[in-house]
Specification:
mainly alpha; 4 helices; 145 residues; binds zinc ion
Length: 145
Amino acid sequence: MCADKKNNGPGYLWSVFHHKCSRCRTGRMFKVKNAYHLKHFMKMYDRCPACTQYFEIEPGFYYGTAYISYAITVALSVATFIGWWLLLGFSLEDNSVLKWIVSNMIVLILIQPYLMRLSRAIWLSFFVPYNANWQTEKPEDPERM
Ligand SMILES: [Zn+2]
């Protein structure tokens, strides 16, 4: 029984940051590898190329990623605010707050394609847990009308 708990698969964080299927952590979720290939960067496989897990579990499944994206954006903004405060400081006598807002906005816009993919990978991982026996066990088919 203890051997069942041993997990030799890729780690959760690695798979999420590399946009891998949360069930097998090896199959890619997106058809285009580069997140900055802006014309096709959000095109996903219907099923995982490695374990055949459905990626769209139900219609509109990925609407919930807005919450993930929002939380990451707020966390990054807080981090850049604290970083700016510690390294450069804020003052009411100069435009340091405005400079931080503009800098933060530019950073968030530049990383947005990656963040959108990351949010989907995190969202999928909430509903599809890792299965160490993914090579032998079939994934559950989603309920379809
Ligand atoms: Zn998979």
